[in-house]
Amino acid sequence: MNFQVPQFIEVEDTIFGPLTFKQFIYLVGGGSLVFLLWSFLPLYIAGVPIILIAGLSIALAFYKINNRPFIKILEAGFWYLLGKKLYIWKKGPAKIIPQIDKKTKTEGSIEIPKLSKSKLRDLSWSLDIKDKLE
Question: Global pTM?
Answer without folding.
Answer: 0.57
